[in-house]
Design a protein that fits this description.
mainly alpha, single chain, 62% helix
Length: 129
């Protein structure tokens, strides 16, 4: 069996009990880069490649922001990640935007006030666990 082939149905499951395949799920989800769902397998792969390229471009900024938070908040890598995710969820702000704002503080700029408040609250939640 190839690592890319799909396994057959599991014993004891009916068609209604089986989860939707990845192909079915990707057709129902809107596309994030072009604004429309992919129309075929080639377009779906192009869309995925575009999304992966964006993620690869943003990852270094996120990693640097994690390092800054680790130094400033005396926390672990995982805790710094949790802080970024927590602030993102509570402020309804994209994680990479928060990471860019944290990175900008290295050059003397302040963190925007709403993000300061959310970060302080996230640190408090982290410390009280």
């Amino acid at each position: 069996m190839s690592p890319f082939s799909r396994p057959g149905p599991r014993r004891g499951t009916t068609e209604q009990q089986r989860p939707a395949s990845h192909d079915q799920a990707s057709r129902s989800c809107p596309s994030h880069t072009s604004g429309r769902p992919p129309t075929g397998p080639v377009e779906a792969l192009r869309e995925e490649v575009a999304q992966l390229r964006i993620a690869m471009e943003r990852r270094p900024v996120i990693d640097m922001a994690r390092g800054i938070l680790m130094a400033r908040c005396s926390c672990t890598e995982d805790d710094a990640w949790e802080l970024l995710v927590d602030v993102s969820q509570h402020s309804n702000t994209k994680l990479h935007d928060i990471a860019e704002a944290v990175l900008a503080t290295v050059h003397g700029g302040p963190l925007p006030a709403p993000l300061q408040d959310h970060l302080a609250a996230a640190v408090t939640r982290l410390r009280t666990r």
